[in-house]
Amino acid sequence: MTRTVVDLASLTWTLEGWRPWEWELASAVETAVSRSCDIGPVPARFPGSVRGALWEHGLILDPSIGLQSRASEFIEHRHWVLRATLPADLPQGGLELEFDGLDGPVVVFIDGERRAETANSFVPLRVDLGDASSRSGASIALVFLTPPPYLGQIGRTSELRDWRPRFNYGWDWTPRVVQIGPARAGRLTVRQGAPAPRDLIVRAEFNAETTAETTSGTGTVSGSGTATAGAELRIALLSSDGDARAETSATADAEGSFQFTLTADGVTGWWGTGRCYVVRVTEDEEGQAVERRIGFRDVRWQSNPGAPDDAEPWLLHIDGAPVFIRGVNWIPLRGDYADVGLEEYRQRLEQYRDLGVNLLRVWGGSARERDEFYEMCDDLGLLVWQELPQSSAGLDNHPPTDAAYAAELAEIAEHYARTLHHHPSVIVWSGGNELAGAPGEPTPGTPLTFDHPALQAAKAAIRAIDPDRKVVPTSPTGPRYVADESEFGQGLHHDVHGPWVVSPDPAEWERYWHADDALLRSEVGVAGASSVDLLEKYGIDGANAEERAQLWRHTSNWWFDRDDIPETDLPTWVEKSQREQAAALTVAASSAMDRFPACGGFIVWMGHDSFPCAISLAVVDYEGRLKPAARALGQVYGRTLAAEKRG
Q: What PANTHER family does its record include (predicted)?
């Protein structure tokens, strides 16, 4: 089989803004009135956001300055049409359009014909267009309709049923900057002959032999997939330079299913090296290859010493050695995350690695990251805790329980597992962030278990593809959502979140952490100001306390006391805020580390700002600069290597 793939980024795209439904009236034969778009057309990128295209071409103000993001909220009240023309020289063969993620809802038109639609940002949309040659030069239009009105931080999780990212509707670290547009890559594929192997699932096992210099050993790869019935499959394990380390073959049965196992001696372990290999499966001699990138490591979770019998094990071992989790909670780099370049991803990930971070928790208020994020984590040796796209909402934290919602979440979980299962960086699946209680109960409530039907369905979908990795219903887990000092010593604190506010008396803060008994601290935050020059650059420094209060409420309302805002001496206030954040996180992270292995890890909330914030819980500011808290955390994380050896 041969295959032609056209990256949709290579097409020439234009963007038009319409008052709702006027784009449809413009093409209606019954109207004699010529209609034109309200905004544009302007050149656009794929992927890319509507806001990004409008800003690039001077049609809106810079949304990161002052209160100017409010001026672009009108974007949500238009329909946006993204247009391109398919290549004029497409060969014969089956033609398919595939979109990895569309922040819609969106309707797809080909030559004016309605062909598909979706309102789910978390799963791909595939559109079969029939014979490719008949579509050469055809027009394509993606019509993005008005998004759901509100999915932000405060609400009722039990009433939220829209499958799109929530964070950019407004959180305590970003104003409302709702992204609309193609959020991820897309492609146009022409297939000729028999299809390539499909649904390829691979599993890598590692029998490690660790020395003082390196970890190597025997690697075993097992896999399965579908192909043409009776087809001969050639399977190879390749090193990074393309050399074959092991080869085998398989034959697809009458239903097209195939399975294989191959073993290679002397492979290099992934942990500590970032060494990856490629599994390549080819159907017949001239077939199209399908590849999965893997790494060899042995990940196991053991019970923390002294943990209650019913507690989830939170003591991580990799290749037989205990590992203290030194983490940051990862949020998207921008509200309009489709506009972020890969170089910014690499810079931020390398920055965390250099601080001693070994795990990123990809938080459930957004989506899974782009494919390149996980490839970079593989290369850098960073672990990933991946959450499904569900989160608390303050007024209740309990997702819907009906069968339709459970089926929708299971579909997303299956897609996440299918696309991420082979990455050595991914070590934990979670059903979502801070899911707890029940509708009508006081918040936050007790963390949910897999008794919840949607979480149960999601777990089953993940397990069917990725049976070996750790899956938890939510974070936190166990009897308590947060750790109460009055309950220390009672075995009630397993994986807990908080605190996020430092007590006024530093001695109280130290006493709390020295008495801590949590098995894992997966979310701990302390607020700290951004630098004075950043406040000035983005117009949020303010001339006096009253003006600062107005500006800071835009992003930081949770994290400052109006009475503490300085009238004049802003630099002194910023220095004090940053110093206190650094000191408080040093106490918290050090205490968790000192209790290792009774405490399995510490994950700070949060890593970086996605919007210019006057003050936030981030340790890295909007421009990627380290706050003093990040440097302090790096010093603590650097000391955990000795703690791991003691473990």
A: BETA-MANNOSIDASE
